[in-house]
Amino acid sequence: MIVDRKHDNHREIKSVGSCEVVQSFVYLGSLIENSGSCENKALVAVTNLTKIWRDHNITRATKMSLVQ
């Protein structure tokens, strides 16, 4: 995959010939996007903390330290 960030894809790869251009794909369980963005990864990480956010036995300070 080519991470282009500004949609400047160079489709020719000399060692392989050519490749299929895609917007995103899953690799080792992570979503890889051609923009280099990690928004989905951050969203999943925050969503996984839902039980912690709702737990009243964990202090707000501890919860905030997890975010930082």
Automatic annotation (TrEMBL):
Protein name per the record? Uncharacterized protein
The species is Callosobruchus maculatus
